Amino acid sequence: MDGVPTPLRCFSECHSAEMFVDDGVETVTSVEQKKVECSIEEVISVYKQIHSLPQPTLLREQHYQYLKKGLRHLSDAYECLDASRPWLCFWILHSLELLEEPIPSAVASEAQQEVFAGGPGQHAHLAPTYAAVNALCIIGTEEAYNVIDRYSPGLT
């Protein structure tokens, strides 16, 4: 687009078409989703009222560098989230995917080695394993797929 910033989807005219629809079946999750969407709409509305620019600018390169750095090393502030490392890895990789930015092979290799590590003394369980498998699928290399035990004995 020759240097023209890509509009953020939340500022597009058709954004409301992307909002959650519960199909008349209200659940705790759907109520919470609607609360989040309303909260975001309020923030966007306030932004539009106090800024002369039509929308904020996404600083893609800075985001890319921050995310790439986060795959290699998280600051001490994240130490309390050590057991959530698979989730952090997934969220970072998914963010890179949304930005359509490549994941350098060396970074991908390091990430797939750490993705199942979790916190010290932590027992494996389904939630971080789910995040780890998603992260490995985003990496998408044969090496990443080989980390996943896709073949259980006795299952055909």
Main attributes of the structure:
transferase, 6 helices, mainly alpha, 156 residues, globular, prenyltransferase, single chain
In short:
The protein is an all-alpha fold and 156 residues long.
Q: What does the model show?
A:
By secondary structure, the protein is mostly helical. It has two domains: 9-50; 60-147, no CATH class. Helix content is 51%, strand content 0%. It contains six helices and no strands. The chain has helices spanning 28-50, 60-72, 85-98, 105-114, 126-139, 142-147. The longest helix is centred in the first third of the chain and has 23 residues, at 28-50. It is globular and about 55 Å long. The model has no long low-confidence stretch (mean pLDDT 80).
Write the layout of secondary structure elements.
Layout: H1 28-50, H2 60-72, H3 85-98, H4 105-114, H5 126-139, H6 142-147
Helix pairs in contact: 2-3, 3-5
Family: Belongs to the protein prenyltransferase subunit beta family.
Organism: Lates calcarifer (Barramundi)
GO molecular function: metal ion binding; protein farnesyltransferase activity
For the CA atoms, what is the radius of gyration?
A: 19 Å
Main beta-sheet strand count, sense and barrel state: none
Instruction: Give the helix/strand class.
Output: mainly alpha
Helix content range of the residues, please?
40-55%
How would you describe the oligomerization state of the chains in this entry? single chain
Q: Which regions have little confidence, pLDDT < 50, spanning 5+ residues?
A: none
How are helices and strands ordered from N to C?
HHHHHH
